[in-house]
Protein backbone atom coordinates (compact mmCIF):
# COMPACT_ATOMS: atom_id res chain seq x y z
CA UNK A 1 0.00 0.00 0.00
CA UNK A 2 1.39 3.38 -0.99
CA UNK A 3 0.47 5.02 2.31
CA UNK A 4 2.64 2.50 4.13
CA UNK A 5 5.68 3.85 2.34
CA UNK A 6 5.78 6.95 4.53
CA UNK A 7 5.87 7.06 8.29
CA UNK A 8 4.75 10.40 9.71
CA UNK A 9 5.63 10.69 13.38
CA UNK A 10 5.56 13.35 16.10
CA UNK A 11 8.88 14.93 17.07
CA UNK A 12 8.41 15.25 20.89
CA UNK A 13 11.72 17.14 21.06
CA UNK A 14 13.41 20.20 19.63
CA UNK A 15 16.91 18.76 19.91
CA UNK A 16 17.02 16.53 16.84
CA UNK A 17 15.18 15.24 13.82
CA UNK A 18 14.32 18.25 11.57
CA UNK A 19 10.56 18.36 12.22
CA UNK A 20 8.26 20.35 9.92
CA UNK A 21 6.17 23.35 10.99
CA UNK A 22 3.55 21.01 12.53
CA UNK A 23 6.20 19.24 14.59
CA UNK A 24 6.12 16.08 12.47
CA UNK A 25 8.99 14.00 11.10
CA UNK A 26 8.43 12.04 7.89
CA UNK A 27 10.41 8.88 7.20
CA UNK A 28 10.22 7.13 3.88
CA UNK A 29 10.62 3.36 3.79
CA UNK A 30 12.40 3.36 0.45
CA UNK A 31 15.39 5.21 1.90
CA UNK A 32 16.37 1.95 3.63
CA UNK A 33 17.36 -1.56 2.54
CA UNK A 34 18.36 -0.79 -1.04
CA UNK A 35 19.55 -3.88 -2.95
CA UNK A 36 22.08 -1.57 -4.58
CA UNK A 37 23.61 -0.42 -1.32
CA UNK A 38 27.41 -0.45 -1.89
CA UNK A 39 29.24 -3.00 0.26
CA UNK A 40 32.80 -2.51 -1.03
CA UNK A 41 34.99 0.22 0.39
CA UNK A 42 38.75 0.70 0.09
CA UNK A 43 38.59 2.40 3.47
CA UNK A 44 35.92 2.03 6.11
CA UNK A 45 35.56 1.55 9.86
CA UNK A 46 33.06 -0.72 11.57
CA UNK A 47 31.75 -0.93 15.12
CA UNK A 48 29.15 -3.04 16.91
CA UNK A 49 26.61 -1.00 18.86
CA UNK A 50 24.75 -2.70 21.70
CA UNK A 51 21.55 -1.00 22.83
CA UNK A 52 19.69 -1.67 26.05
CA UNK A 53 16.33 -1.23 24.39
CA UNK A 54 14.61 -1.32 21.05
CA UNK A 55 12.93 1.97 22.04
CA UNK A 56 16.28 3.74 21.76
CA UNK A 57 17.00 2.23 18.34
CA UNK A 58 13.55 3.44 17.21
CA UNK A 59 14.50 6.95 18.33
CA UNK A 60 17.85 6.74 16.57
CA UNK A 61 16.07 5.95 13.30
CA UNK A 62 13.50 8.68 13.92
CA UNK A 63 15.90 11.47 14.92
CA UNK A 64 19.10 10.47 13.12
CA UNK A 65 21.24 10.58 16.27
CA UNK A 66 22.91 8.22 18.73
CA UNK A 67 24.51 8.53 22.16
CA UNK A 68 26.88 5.97 23.60
CA UNK A 69 28.54 5.57 27.00
CA UNK A 70 31.27 8.11 27.82
CA UNK A 71 33.90 5.54 26.81
CA UNK A 72 31.98 4.57 23.69
CA UNK A 73 31.53 8.20 22.66
CA UNK A 74 35.29 8.74 23.05
CA UNK A 75 36.14 5.70 20.96
CA UNK A 76 33.70 6.63 18.19
CA UNK A 77 34.73 10.28 18.37
CA UNK A 78 38.38 9.51 17.77
CA UNK A 79 37.45 7.06 14.98
CA UNK A 80 35.50 9.88 13.32
CA UNK A 81 38.47 12.27 13.55
CA UNK A 82 40.70 9.55 12.12
CA UNK A 83 38.25 8.96 9.25
CA UNK A 84 38.22 12.71 8.56
CA UNK A 85 42.01 12.73 8.27
CA UNK A 86 41.86 9.82 5.83
CA UNK A 87 39.11 11.54 3.82
CA UNK A 88 41.30 14.66 3.59
CA UNK A 89 43.76 12.62 1.51
CA UNK A 90 40.99 12.05 -1.04
CA UNK A 91 39.80 8.57 0.01
CA UNK A 92 36.42 8.44 1.69
CA UNK A 93 36.30 6.49 4.94
CA UNK A 94 32.73 5.87 6.14
CA UNK A 95 32.07 4.56 9.66
CA UNK A 96 29.36 1.91 9.81
CA UNK A 97 27.60 0.90 13.02
CA UNK A 98 26.03 -2.57 13.37
CA UNK A 99 23.16 -2.29 15.86
CA UNK A 100 22.05 -5.10 18.15
CA UNK A 101 19.71 -4.91 21.14
CA UNK A 102 21.05 -6.77 24.19
CA UNK A 103 19.72 -10.34 24.55
CA UNK A 104 17.68 -10.07 21.32
CA UNK A 105 19.63 -12.80 19.51
CA UNK A 106 19.88 -10.67 16.39
CA UNK A 107 21.25 -7.55 14.74
CA UNK A 108 18.62 -4.99 13.75
CA UNK A 109 20.31 -2.63 11.31
CA UNK A 110 23.22 -0.62 9.98
CA UNK A 111 23.71 3.13 10.41
CA UNK A 112 26.56 5.37 9.31
CA UNK A 113 28.17 7.86 11.66
CA UNK A 114 27.84 11.18 9.82
CA UNK A 115 29.11 13.74 12.31
CA UNK A 116 31.58 14.17 15.17
CA UNK A 117 30.63 13.45 18.77
CA UNK A 118 29.31 16.57 20.47
CA UNK A 119 30.02 15.82 24.11
CA UNK A 120 27.83 18.72 25.27
CA UNK A 121 24.75 17.97 23.19
CA UNK A 122 22.47 15.76 25.26
CA UNK A 123 19.18 14.36 24.03
CA UNK A 124 16.02 14.41 26.13
CA UNK A 125 14.40 11.21 24.89
CA UNK A 126 16.54 8.15 25.64
CA UNK A 127 15.12 5.42 27.87
CA UNK A 128 17.65 6.25 30.59
CA UNK A 129 19.02 9.64 31.51
CA UNK A 130 22.58 8.38 31.75
CA UNK A 131 23.45 8.84 28.06
CA UNK A 132 25.24 12.11 27.45
CA UNK A 133 26.70 13.63 24.32
CA UNK A 134 25.49 12.64 20.86
CA UNK A 135 26.39 12.38 17.20
CA UNK A 136 24.47 12.25 13.95
CA UNK A 137 23.82 9.00 12.09
CA UNK A 138 22.20 8.02 8.81
CA UNK A 139 20.37 4.70 8.73
CA UNK A 140 20.94 2.55 5.64
CA UNK A 141 19.64 -0.90 6.55
CA UNK A 142 16.81 -1.70 8.96
CA UNK A 143 16.07 -5.40 9.20
CA UNK A 144 16.27 -8.14 11.79
CA UNK A 145 19.08 -10.56 10.96
CA UNK A 146 19.48 -13.43 13.46
CA UNK A 147 22.88 -13.99 15.06
CA UNK A 148 23.47 -17.31 13.30
CA UNK A 149 24.10 -15.40 10.04
CA UNK A 150 27.13 -13.76 11.65
CA UNK A 151 28.38 -16.36 14.12
CA UNK A 152 31.21 -17.53 11.84
CA UNK A 153 32.79 -14.06 11.90
CA UNK A 154 35.47 -14.23 14.58
CA UNK A 155 37.23 -11.15 15.94
CA UNK A 156 40.94 -11.47 16.72
CA UNK A 157 40.79 -8.12 18.50
CA UNK A 158 38.21 -9.58 20.93
CA UNK A 159 39.94 -12.78 22.13
CA UNK A 160 38.80 -14.69 19.06
CA UNK A 161 35.14 -14.42 20.07
CA UNK A 162 32.35 -14.31 17.53
CA UNK A 163 31.11 -10.87 16.52
CA UNK A 164 27.76 -11.91 18.01
CA UNK A 165 29.48 -11.91 21.39
CA UNK A 166 30.63 -8.29 21.22
CA UNK A 167 30.47 -5.49 23.73
CA UNK A 168 29.27 -2.01 22.83
CA UNK A 169 31.55 -0.12 20.39
CA UNK A 170 33.61 -3.23 19.66
CA UNK A 171 35.60 -2.48 16.51
CA UNK A 172 35.37 -4.92 13.58
CA UNK A 173 38.31 -5.17 11.16
CA UNK A 174 37.63 -3.91 7.64
CA UNK A 175 37.41 -7.22 5.79
CA UNK A 176 35.04 -8.71 8.35
CA UNK A 177 33.03 -5.50 8.48
CA UNK A 178 32.59 -5.61 4.70
CA UNK A 179 31.43 -9.22 4.98
CA UNK A 180 28.87 -8.23 7.62
CA UNK A 181 27.69 -5.39 5.41
CA UNK A 182 27.13 -7.80 2.53
CA UNK A 183 25.27 -10.30 4.76
CA UNK A 184 23.06 -7.46 6.01
CA UNK A 185 22.26 -6.20 2.53
CA UNK A 186 21.48 -9.62 1.09
CA UNK A 187 19.58 -11.12 4.04
CA UNK A 188 15.90 -11.80 3.44
CA UNK A 189 14.47 -10.51 6.67
CA UNK A 190 10.97 -11.44 7.76
CA UNK A 191 10.76 -8.58 10.26
CA UNK A 192 12.22 -5.16 10.98
CA UNK A 193 11.92 -2.35 13.48
CA UNK A 194 9.90 -0.45 10.85
CA UNK A 195 7.06 -2.97 11.27
CA UNK A 196 6.77 -2.02 14.95
CA UNK A 197 7.27 1.71 14.52
CA UNK A 198 3.72 2.59 15.54
CA UNK A 199 4.09 0.53 18.71
CA UNK A 200 7.25 2.39 19.76
CA UNK A 201 5.71 5.72 18.77
CA UNK A 202 2.84 5.00 21.11
CA UNK A 203 5.20 4.08 23.94
CA UNK A 204 7.15 7.27 23.41
CA UNK A 205 3.94 9.33 23.47
CA UNK A 206 2.88 7.76 26.77
CA UNK A 207 6.30 8.36 28.35
CA UNK A 208 6.36 11.90 27.01
CA UNK A 209 2.94 12.66 28.51
CA UNK A 210 3.99 11.21 31.87
CA UNK A 211 7.07 13.43 32.12
UniProtKB/TrEMBL annotation:
One of its GO terms (cellular component) is cytoplasm. One of its GO terms (biological process) is mRNA destabilization. One of its GO terms (molecular function) is mRNA binding. Keywords: RNA-binding. The keyword 4Fe-4S does not apply. Pfam families: YTH. InterPro entries: YTH_domain (IPR007275), YTH_prot (IPR045168). Residues 44-184 form the YTH domain. The keyword NAD does not apply. Specifically recognizes and binds N6-methyladenosine (m6A)-containing RNAs, and regulates mRNA stability. M6A is a modification present at internal sites of mRNAs and some non-coding RNAs and plays a role in mRNA stability and processing. Belongs to the YTHDF family. This is YTH domain-containing family protein.
Amino acid sequence: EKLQNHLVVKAYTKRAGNPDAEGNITLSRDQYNSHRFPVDYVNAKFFVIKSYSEDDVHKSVKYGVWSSTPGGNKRLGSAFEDARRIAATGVECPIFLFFSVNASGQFCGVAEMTGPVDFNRDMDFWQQDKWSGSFSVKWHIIKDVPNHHFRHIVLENNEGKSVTNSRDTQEVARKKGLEMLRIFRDANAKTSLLDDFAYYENRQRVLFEER
